[in-house]
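Dear Dr. V.,

Thank you for agreeing to look over these. As mentioned in my earlier message, I'm a first-year student in the group and I'm still getting used to reading structure tokens, so any feedback on how I've presented them would be very welcome. I ran two proteins. I've put each sequence directly above its structure. The first is here:
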Amino acid sequence: MFMEETATEKKNVVFLVLDSLRKDRLSVYNESVDFTDHVQRLADSAVVFENAVTQAPWTLPSHASMFTGEYPWEHGTTHAESYFQGGETFVSQFERAGHSTAAITPNVWITPHKGMTEDFDHVENFLGKADNRVSVRLSRLGTRLFNALGDGTRRVLGRQLDRVFRLFDVDDSTKSEETVEAVEEYLGSRSDDENFFLYVNLMEPHEPYHPPKSYADSHGVADDANIPHRQKDMFTMDDIDYEALRRVYDASVDYTDDLVGRIVDALEANDLDEDTVVVLLSDHGQALCEDGEQFGHQFTVAEPVVNTVLLVDHPDMGPETEERPIEMRKLNELVPYYAGIAPRPEGVFSETVKGGIEYPENFTGFIPRDRWNEYYRKYRYVKRDGTKVVKSVDEDGRARYEAYDLVTDTDVPVPDALKQAVDEITSAEQPSDGDRDGDAEPDHEMDEEVTRRLEELGYK
């Protein structure tokens, strides 16, 4: 068993996040899938985790949990407090161990602007002129200013901002080619005596969906398919083609698989594969309107969103399937162990796994008022012994409980023990110690490029 082995020699790590990737779109987890050969090849020699659960269904708090080992209600990164306040991350352990550390990602949530890259030596976010110290400070202050507003003001302002953003023709590119080219360049420049930790985020499985035409064609996606590209499209589009939505998602996953293949090939071409651990995962999954309503991941904790991909290909460990439930926040302990820079962690697996999100404050400006109560809710979820309980609370504090049998996918009565467990989860504590860059003058506008990227991802 992999946890009974000890990783003693230092290894490199490629921490590869396939953003918004569902488990059921990989042949590793679903034998009927025939377009993910590269991930399958990696999985054939890897530890495959069957029951990994994210602690939050969107990027920023999910990553904060993985990096710190804390739950979202502990690190305090929420929809309303959309900036990581800092703290010990596992990346800092690599720095202390002498590894070079780098982050290559077009995801705006994993940037200095959002506080997630403080521990990296090298960061490539493809932000152009926005990638500078002044821009980062102004972005942080703009975020804090928005967060400091009252609920009602923030909600009204969010709606107005959304109307403004709709006027702009934003670039929907996920910069996947640029990301992989930067990874190839980084791996090609490593010296033989240098250990490294490389974080990579590929955005193709995340909406909006614009895979290369050859992939769209191979999955039967017509050029004029009526496909929603952002959550707000669900409220403004007529005659949505849900099957086409799922096909274009598959095309994006197919393209992602080939991008993964290029990264693995780059490791082999540079003779790094025998000294490198590849941790491949999704930070969360994606809802594709299975219920005719939910699209994306911002407002739901459904299983396709919180049950995540996780496999670890270690050159000194054989293939294995791990059935025990594990919270993704435990990667904070596991990744340094796999790299040979930390002892074997205890208590990695848990009978009860849990997560949650706060009220989606600045994400709901486009939702009609008569639908508000369906989306403006705080969620907590726990899973134990094949049962999942979800607690959602509306803005008036009224709680709703739902329970599901995860094997049969049917509703069941809420078990008292799991109701107690979900009730014991606290709310996130909002930090109040002020901005760390307090010597800068406040600015009321977030940096234009960062704002544009958020719009591209459908977060405004």
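The second protein is here, in the same arrangement:
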Amino acid sequence: MQIARKFASVPSKLQGGRTQELMDKRQAFVPRGVGNNTPIFVEKAEGALIYDVDGNVFIDFAGAIGTQNVGHCPPEVVKAVQAQLEKYIHPCFHVAMYEPYLELAEKLAQMTPGNFPKKTIFLNSGAEAVENAVKIARKFTGKSGIVSFSRGFHGRTLLGMSLTSKVRPYKFQMGPFAPATYKAQFPYPLNRPQGMSETDYALYCVGQFQDFLYTEVAPEELAAVIMEPIQGEGGFIVPPKEFVQGVYEICKRNGILFIADEIQTGFGRTGEMFASTHFGIEPDLMTMSKSIAAGLPISAVTGRSEIMDAPAPGEIGGTYGGSPLGCVAALAVIEKMERENLVERSRVIGETIRGFFTDLQKTVPHIAEVRGLGAMCAIEFVHPDTNVPDKANAAAIQKGCYEAGVILLSAGVHSNVIRFLTPLVITDEELAEGLDIIQHVIIEQYAEERK
């Protein structure tokens, strides 16, 4: 199979001279626990393309784990940050306030689901947003319990790990974990019992959650439920709409706050600005980060004003939270997304990816499912005779793809899912070439296995 290449180019060894030099330095000075999915060092990045220090060019289907929805180095964002650098870098909002913080808080109040007054605190990372959302929920309700879900991911801090479901690599030998955290079952539509309809399965899963409140923790002890509307690290699992709405309604009836973790799903990734819209819910609190600012470190908790006002002055915050550089970058990102209608572009990209792999699935039975919403798409690999998760081949496919010029990430509790997080500015030509390369690698991998 010949691939017409215009963008991806790997003429030199991945471990070329400059890469090897930097890799030696990395091994000497950076802990091995800091994982690296792709053994390259970036020289520059633009749009959906990454150029490494040895002259290789890669089509980026990872987007810095969903951080680059508007692409690498969008000129509008670069210009906004440069202009801000000439004014002031960081007076610290707790010491001397500044307008970009207010402008971004106002914008998020307008954008996020829910027609009610909202307020926002800005922080540094997704995990920090989760930590503060929990603090705010506990302060408002006077209760301590927090429910997350199987396969959920909410960060690598102590509380983030406690809420996260995947043991390796996130939690192994890292305990003890935070108390008053509980895990309920999240749907896995691929494993729906044979003969059970989608509607019945959704109702069954809601029933499981209701039973959870009888068998594990009483509603009166719960401050909040935190849910990724579509699970990210867990394998891009799209739950039934009726399940999300069912849990949401149970929370409402029992005085439990609903926190939507939109750190990976937010800012157009799913074909809506926020994934909560797909499910018709209005979260009490929402956490955001990743693509909010094109890669600058900033995160947010946005929620109902009366909830956000529960903590007293000084009880939430941090020295670098709401960096002026992050705020102006985020405002530029939002303006670009709205001007270029990147939410609609996300839908087109997703339809293309899912259609492509649905066709490939007909000849590659190892692809158990093609799934996703918008441009948040994934394919799950299993051994077709047993339906056992196929981690080894998924890893080999990921490796084969970056060696051929496409950067991918895996996901899922069993690491047998390949996920796609292309920048939403990827061109049709770049997308088509990347998909052709991935298809070639998949076909070659399973042909090799049959030998």
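From my reading of the second output: The first helix runs from residue 17 to 29. The first strand starts at residue 42 and ends at 46. Does that match how you would interpret it?

Kind regards,
E.
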